[in-house]
Amino acid sequence: DGGITQSPKYLFRKEGQNVTLSCEQNLNHDAMYWYRQDPGQGLRLIYYSQIVNDFQKGDIAEGYSVSREKKESFPLTVTSAQKNPTAFYLCASRTGGSSNQPQHFGDGTRLSIL
Amino acid sequence: AQSVTQPDIHITVSEGASLELRCNYSYGATPYLFWYVQSPGQGLQLLLKYFSGDTLVQGIKGFEAEFKRSQSSFNLRKPSVHWSDAAEYFCAVGGQGGSYIPTFGRGTSLIVHP
């Protein structure tokens, strides 16, 4: 079945440590997105990518980095510069070229600080 | 700029009662509108979408939504709520311009009493 796989489901970060969240999709979608979700704040866009080897900052990119070396993969690194990383992280993808297509979401990764 | 407002943070209904979740949007042209549902600890699942044509849209799980241009609204409805409908509901408007970045509301949490 086609879909988006996020791993791990739970992740713990130590002070000063960088951690990487994985997002893989087999939907052949061009566009991929990373969101951060905090209680009562909805979804906030961290980064997005519309094609391979290109990505753009979203509303809250500070302290995060991404890469898009393959169409199916869009990993997110939470760096030590992100002082409040505890949140639920969602990856999404969408067929490119039109805003009338919905996003497909993974099941998320919950990141906590040790 | 586009925006979405979900005025109700929480909604409590009794099982079997009808449901209406409100969504108001701001968009410069004909909007593309979506409703998603999120169960605890999971990603978002598309319930329904509006692009054009019939203003009453049917979705999965017995949900429907009505697009009202004059009121800039896209309210979600269900005639009889089941306990399994308890979840977080998000309204979103399709992005405009070349980036096609959707804008999400902050979500409405639905609580269902037996």
Explain the overall architecture:
The complex is a heterodimer of chains A (114) and B (114). Chain A has 114 residues and is mainly β. Chain A contains no helices and eleven strands. Chain A has strands spanning 4-7, 10-13, 19-25, 31-37, 43-51, 54-57, 64-66, 76-78, 87-94, 104-105, 109-113. In chain A, the strands form two sheets. In chain A, strands 2, 4, 5, 6, 9, 10 and 11 form a seven-stranded mixed sheet that branches. A four-stranded antiparallel sheet of chain A has the order 1-3-8-7, with no helix packed on it. In chain A, strand 4 (31-37) and strand 5 form a beta hairpin. The mean pLDDT of chain A is 93. Chain B is mostly beta strands and 114 residues long. Chain B is 0% helix and 49% strand. Chain B has strands at 3-5, 10-14, 19-21, 24-26, 33-38, 44-50, 56-58, 64-68, 73-78, 87-93, 103-104, 108-113. In chain B, the strands form three sheets. In chain B, strands 2, 5, 6, 10, 11 and 12 form a six-stranded mixed sheet that branches. Chain B has a four-stranded antiparallel sheet with strand order 3-9-8-7, with no helix packed on it. Chain B has a two-stranded antiparallel sheet with strand order 1-4. The mean pLDDT of chain B is 92. At the A-B interface, strand 5, strand 9 and strand 10 of A face strand 6 of B.
Keywords:
heterodimer; A: 114 residues; mainly beta; 7-stranded mixed beta sheet; B: 114 residues; 6-stranded mixed beta sheet; 4-stranded antiparallel beta sheet; 12 strands
Distance between the termini of chain A: 35 Å
Q: How many E strands of chain B? A: 12
Radius of gyration based on Cα positions of chain A: 13 Å
The largest interface is: A-B, 30 and 24 residues
